# Entry
Amino acid sequence: MRSITLSQAVNEAIAEEMRRDETVFLIGEDVAEAGTPFKVTSGLVEEFGTGRVIDTPIAEQGFMGLAVGAAMTGARPIVDLMFGDFLFLVMDQLCNQAAKTHYMSGGKLNVPLVLRTNLGATRRSAAQHSQSLHALVAHIPGLKVAMPSSAYEAKGLMKTAIRDDNPVVIFEDKLMYQDKAEVPEDEYLIPFGEAKVLREGRDVTLIGTSSMRQVCEAAAAMLEADGISAEVIDPRTISPLDEATILGSVKKTTRAIVVDEGHQNFGTTAEIAARISEKAFYHLDAPVIRMGAMDVPIPFSPALEDLTVPTAEKVAENARRLVAGELIHAL
Amino acid sequence: MADAKTNTEDYLQMYRQMVRIRAFEDNANQLYLDAKMPGLTHMYSGEEAVAVGICEALEVTDKITSTHRGHGHCVAKGAAFKEMFCELLGKEEGYCRGKGGSMHIADQSNGNLGANAIVGGSMGIATGSALRAKMQGSDDVTVCFFGDGATAQGLMYEVMNMAALWKLPVIYACENNGYSEYTKTDEIAAGEITARAEAFGIEAHQVDGQDVLAVNKLTTDLVQRARKGEGPFFIELMTYRYHGHHVGDINRTYYRTKDEEAEWKTKRDPIKLFGDWLTSEGIASEDDLAALGEGVRQEAADAVTYALAAPYPDGSEVDMHVFLEKT
Ligand SMILES: Cc1ncc(C[n+]2csc(CCOP(=O)(O)OP(=O)(O)O)c2C)c(N)n1
Ligand SMILES: [Mg+2]
# Structure
């Protein structure tokens, strides 16, 4: 099968959906000729024109609002938010307007829009360009949240998002845009709320979102050398969350570590860990471990930044201690 | 209080500060090209007369807020090369102890409230600083630097309204370099930029941002009036960035021509224009200026050498400064 980059996969998904449905349009800063700073949307304006691939002023709240209105009245906007950190500028339109319109209208109106943005640190971009803020929007009822972990997921989830009749926020890892994966030429969609088991194991379940999937896979490979068999799960969407797959796995392995790049406090790891503790408590042989980004603004200096994100070594170390039955709640 | 710069020493100080900014940026660019600088940075080269003309009209106690393209503001407000290069490289002795980097670089002790990686993100901060000055009866003025692209942010209109209502001592300095990222300003800004301020009854000026004397004269006047409670004011400074949007933006011909770049660099270079004026007025000889330039370049080279060898912060600093802890 052919391999393409995550960036190409997103591009293909948008192009295919724009060909299929003429109400789909793309709007954001430097999405047309420049193709975004990460070159994800290059070529789209040539095919679809400036009428459907729209460059905006630097007015995030404004174009987010336009997208909500357009979506409520018959269009399917894809909003490009250059950095996930800029979510803070669009929160009212996204969370007070888009998320609640269907409910507040008693089901009379709906908002089929996609907000695509990114997450991920270690790019030496400092505190305002490195955050992973998906937990913030996953907290809001009425928003769906997808977190592709490879080019394959990126394409399938994007196509599903565009066809969804509700607001969906997709977080791509900005360090993965050039990473390649096998992506079929034939059309496929990835349903929301279906986790993927990437590796089967007996001793511990490692749950990793976005690029933390690769961190978990690397940790599992290290653990194998120690005779520890780790199961690796990528939830793919955190809202909705595929509880059944996660709980089924933990009931088998009796141990779980949840790894995610958002801040650990009040984060995605906390939510998943809580559901496991609540619903699989009597199957557990050890407390569920959360591993998120350190609870500090992301520092610029490489000497500091690298300390803030979970690594495969640390995941493996925690797994070893869990399996060895150490009193890990003192972590 | 600063008068418009009118004596030899002041003129040479303005010239030196512009040359210092250019030298800082040339070195920063080289550090990027040599893969010695982490991340990316946005060069101020070409816009020196804006930062220098304005900051030379300010006192140390006056405040500024800066942008993602902030090295020039930082130098112009009085920062030293050593701490700046250390910051750029994420070293412990940097102004922000390596936590900020290029996009948050600032010499806080000289009244620089911070560079900002959120476009338009400092407009509230600058206006709030001016509100504090007024409330506390302090006569300092705050200058808010931002780009033409930032005029699209709604925050600007919320705070200009309040600044005008409450006559706050703030000067909004819009650096119009013709582009926001890869888009021409004409394509993203409706109407006249100065008219936006005028709609709130704010006195607005447009000035040649390549002419340091014109910038300095106008700003000196506005700062003095702002101190007396006649603010706020708005200045649109027409300028140009020589490099790409950031150091990695090398192939630019899809959004601006090489001819256009060459035109600005050869005919409208702020340092060359001011240097020519200084020599034609007999204020300095070409040799004087060359020697000054040489001295500055040496100072920059020494600071780079120092910063490259300087230590990174200790890992234990990673969770320091999340909150101010009482000791
Ligand atoms: C709120 C926000 N939106 C978008 C960006 C990405 N961005 C960084 S600089 C820039 C262009 C800014 O243009 P302008 O204000 O004219 O300043 P210039 O770069 O020309 O100095 C953009 C879009 C950002 N940093 N913050
Ligand atoms: Mg600009």
